[in-house]
Automatic annotation (TrEMBL):
This is Leucine-rich repeat-containing protein 3-like. The lineage of its organism: Eukaryota, Metazoa, Chordata, Craniata, Vertebrata. It is found in: Membrane. The gene is lrrc3. The keyword Signal applies. The chain crosses the membrane at residues 200-221.
Amino acid sequence: MVPWGWGCTLGWGLILGTLLAWAPVWSCPSGCLCVEKNSLTVVQCMSRNLEKIPSDLPTDTSILLLASNRITHVPNHAFKELHHLQQLDLSNNHIERVDVGAFQGVYDSLLLLDLSNNNIQRVPKEVFARLRAKVSLSNNPWHCECTLQEVLRELRLDPETVNEVVCHTAVQDEYAGRPLIQVLDSGINFCNFHHKTTDVAMFVTMFGWFAMVIAYVIYYIRHNQEDARRHLEYLKSLPSTSQISRDFDTISTVL
């Protein structure tokens, strides 16, 4: 049986250990909860009606939870000072735009990135080019085209959510509503459509310019023909040389 004094000491030891394991981090954004857990700084800002990513995050943040807010934009350099960031949860927001340099500064440290359940249709292919993290992009209204196909080549897509990256719209309507990975596995190459579309656009543009040149040439010819006709009629209206000679002879005889 443990003596009462020892039991109190043991109890306080457990409480103290718990407090140390979840020690608060004092430089914490307003409305967020920041704690230390297993030597990791966890910043919990979930469901706080945030409209943008806090700018005063602790520089030693390891886990950043920003899910279920109203964030619409992930700007350049949003996490550039968070060189220890390992997990970033941006799911269940209203994100529509992710800038090219959004994850600059965390390329090497970030291990997990969750962008699921947002409003993302397109992202620049360079966004994920240097990331080592496993990324979830599920349940966004993706527009399936060449750029998105190239994006998938640049990242480590979470295998558990790969079938949830669905084409909300596509360069060809027949692929709308289908998981992107299934479309690509069937042999479809959206970049071929892109090149064909570009070729058609160039052909239409060239045809338009050609038509304008032809129209100008026709107008120029017709305009010149009209001027030539007027000049010819004017010349015809002038008295001939023989008539002028006869008139001159008549005047000489009279004189």
